[in-house]
Amino acid sequence: MIAMIGKFRSRHDRALLLIVFWLLLALFGPLCSSHDPGAIGSQAVFSAPSVAHLLGTDYLGRDTLARLLNGIRHTVLLCFASTLVSCSVGTFLGIAAVTARPWVEALTGRLADGFLSIPSLLFALLVIAVFGTSTTALIMTMGVIYTPGAYRTSRALAQRIARLDFVTVARARGESTPYIILQEILPNMTGPMITDVGLRFIYSVLLLSNLSFLGIGVQPPDVDLGSMVRENMLGMAYGSPAMIVPVVVIGVLTVGINLALDSSSGRR
Fold first, then answer.
1. Following DSSP, what letter does each residue of 40-88 receive, concatenated?
2. pTM (2 decimals)?
3. Could you give the CA distance from residue 53 to residue 60 in angstroms, rounded to a whole number?
4. What are phi and psi of 63, to 5 degrees?
5. CA separation, residue 54 to residues 212, 240, 245 (Å)
6. Could you say which of 40, 163, 170, 264 would form a disulfide bridge with 175 (CB–CB 3.0 to 4.6 Å)?
């Protein structure tokens, strides 16, 4: 038993350390580069890695490492913010659908079905066409897109927990609805919801990368991983790190976060 507890804690610690690593890299990574990510240098375009430019240069002769660190910042922070929005609202609505009156569940369920029936990329294109490509618009768009999925997960978990004996006993004692939600239902949803947060974050990273690849995500002079791939597509013919490295980072970020959160929740 002690060995199993220790193994679970180590998995949880690894997941936490990975998340903290990406957040720290997003916050402080750009400070580690001596190059301006927007400065056009005298180096040749798509140059090979060197002492001056560890990952070479991009299609305008800019330092790829500086651009990459800046791109990680925008990708991680924007997707992290949108994930907080979607999971917070989705969790609240899911619990409310179970604990409130039946018409609340019917209304939220139909709204969620309506949003889920719209392809996420198409919905994002429509919203951005109306409200523009500002940072706030991108965060709120991705938050709205992935709220229905978080709602479905939260509602299923809350519905199962609300039928258990300890919740029935709490109701029999005369406990208030806020007490039952905060003390009985919500703490028992934490593990599965953390895994769901990881999935929403991964979906947000992929959606933001798709939008930026199409040219309607993060706009210049800012950059994210998807826009780096779009800008440096011509470098594919030269095997340029400016094209390859952002793709690798997207894969490492999404797969790493997913595996870490899966292992921390004890799932295979």
1. --SSPTTPPP-SSSTT-B-TTS-BHHHHHHHHHHHHHHHHHHHHHHHHH
2. 0.84
3. 13
4. -70, 125
5. 25, 12, 12
6. 170
